[in-house]
Queue: 2 jobs
Job 1
Amino acid sequence: MFELPPLKYAFNALEPVIDAMTMEIHHDKHHGAYVANLNKALESAPDLQSKSIEWILRNIQQVPENIRTAVRNNGGGHYNHTLFWDWIAPGGSKTPSGALAQEINATFSSFDSFVEQFSNAAITRFGSGWAWLVVNGQKKLQVLSTANQDSPLMDGQTPILGLDVWEHAYYLKYQNRRPEYVKNFWSIVNWDFVNSLYQAAKG
């Protein structure tokens, strides 16, 4: 059985960027529903219940076809949000450092250029989805976006930073002003966590 991980900070800890009501609804209701629906879908696949969510998503084609869509949507939602609550956090380093900073500069020419590419991926994602910084199959950094709750894990990539651009993530405060939400996101990124994921992905 998968469980909803507790939020490690208060609902209002990210104000004014993200308001307390959005955080509470997003974590308790939306993420909670993904966990409940994932567990329900896996009731008919007991052999998968002992697998990690990372394994399930990386091997999504091995999930029985009759529950694959439910597991894709809700398993992706659970995994993506579990990381998201650590990507956005009070405190934490506000810029990348060390090997990650060097790799961002080498790949995107500068940190500002990376921010522009990532922000554009988030702003131009049509409908609901995510923007990502991933370590791809060649162990290189790459910016991309996915629809709905799809995870880069499904394509053999490892996400090290993601931004939720579903309307439920920002609509109470920003309404249709997604670009403003994306711009403000950069002030609450926890680069310490991003760096830890980068180090793990590079192995």
Job 2
Amino acid sequence: MERYICVDIGGTSIKHGLICTDGEFVEKGSLDTQAWKGAGHILERVNGVIENYMAENTVNGLCISTAGIVDPMSGKIIHANGNIPDYTGIGLKEYFQGKFSIPCEVENDVNCAGIAEAVSGAAADKNIAFCMTIGTGVGGCLLIDKKVFHGACNCACEVGYLQLQKGELEPEGCAGMLVRRVAERKGEPVGQWDGKKVLEGAKKQDADCLEALDHLAEILGVGIANICYVINPEVVVLGGGIMSREYEDLLYPRIRRAMDAHLIPLIARHTELKMAVHRNEAGMLGAFFHFLQRREDVNKIHS
């Protein structure tokens, strides 16, 4: 059975694993990204991961999920924010194929998470799906027949930059929004709070924490409704750090109510809202599925 290395490069951690063609991981691990040290340092850390796997396995391909806007044809980072210095312009596919002489494919991490849900997750039975990751930042992707719609310059569905009357999604992220709102209402320093503490407070019926969740749900509901008016998906899948199973009972009904309040009944009735199935493995699994999709496309071109 063929084996593939999967690497998910995030701002906080680099998740990695060895996956077989049946979609099962035989090994998994992670290490800190240390993103502040820049792109060169990240390449060194990923090199070490790949070398370790290749030392003990015959590897048939390298599947990379990464932060930043990616050109999936060239496997190049075409835009990245300041969280990873010098990342913009790095040709990951060219670099790793040249160094290790194995096929490599690269895709954005949110797109990979969406592919994982579309192929074997919450949207597996749907043809048109919108997947949204909600955490420190907000990301989204549209999947049509289980493939990502990239747009004219690979920037489709950058929903974190939506301009909404009640607040913007991206500048401080959803976790930051919750923390700031609760701290302000309690008159306490922001540093005394984090997203998990807010969610735990809401579970205990803390009024300020519940109000912050309602505010966040309203912003997300407006954003999701606007997206639904444009693309009319069969399902919207919610994933990311905040959307953990532990807090699903707090978050899901609030977002569903807010979403429905801003949709006409026809669209609301025909739009499912689901929580993501694949959690920590979503980026790696999606990178693997993307690799297979790209290899199939390449084979078609050359056949």
